[in-house]
Amino acid sequence: DAKTTQPNSMESNEEEPVHLPCNHSTISGTDYIHWYRQLPSQGPEYVIHGLTSNVNNRMASLAIAEDRKSSTLILHRATLRDAAVYYCILMVSGGSNYKLTFGKGTLLTVNP
Amino acid sequence: AAGVIQSPRHLIKEKRETATLKCYPIPRHDTVYWYQQGPGQDPQFLISFYEKMQSDKGSIPDRFSAQQFSDYHSELNMSSLELGDSALYFCASSFRRGGPYEQYFGPGTRLTVT
Hints:
heterodimer; A: mainly beta; five-stranded mixed sheet; four-stranded antiparallel sheet; globular; B: mainly beta
């Protein structure tokens, strides 16, 4: 499975934007970039995914580098509820399975 | 909106006992995944089913088995339980046809083996 690298932890202040980076230098042309987050004592939660173009949804934005070797999850205004572990995961397209391979993720702390 | 339902939410078993975890996917979802998350660990993929057939297998012990039924719900059966099986077990569902779409996770079953 293609691997991703994320910082172990990041800190932000409430109502400020947060940029969570992810490196995936071995990504192949058909791999989707998925982001999930896990709040304490809860199941992982889908955030956003993309292939080549930047993506926006109600939760976040995903900025994908032109060479696709890195991506950034953007939370436009962090709230205390956004404190969680954020996972950047590559998912192979066109295969027979779409399991999620969780790495270490980034622990986001949001200060009031 | 309907979410993934898991039961029971908490389960306490003794060593060498058996346990059955149930998962009810979101309506019209055709794929179910099982993940295990040990204390302080990241979730690890166990097994998945697509249209009631096993589609992929991860680090699932031979003591564990699973299946997906005609109504798409799934059960994870765990036998000869060991202390190391104590973990959170998450089920996720997705609608796979057409691409690798997002997975929606249930609240998990916390299994404690004593």
